[in-house]
Amino acid sequence: MAVFKKLKKSKDKRATVPEPEPVKQLDKRVGLDTYRDFFTLKNYWKAVDRRKREAANHFLHRCTSFS
């Protein structure tokens, strides 16, 4: 009777690697090139709790300077 048996590792028990997800596409009407830009913008606005008017002016100035 063996106390420390070696367990046989089967291929079925290995963790499977998930398939990569496709890159999310943005609607062209949004005006941002990538989903990452949209995500950053969304998190930026979530963080703004005071001085919303100055933040809105900053964003408007930033978007109009790119065009």
TrEMBL record:
<feature type="region of interest" description="Disordered">
    <location>
        <begin position="1"/>
        <end position="22"/>
    </location>
</feature>
<feature type="compositionally biased region" description="Basic and acidic residues">
    <location>
        <begin position="13"/>
        <end position="22"/>
    </location>
</feature>
<feature type="compositionally biased region" description="Basic residues">
    <location>
        <begin position="1"/>
        <end position="12"/>
    </location>
</feature>
<protein>
    <submittedName>
        <fullName>Translocation protein SEC62</fullName>
    </submittedName>
</protein>
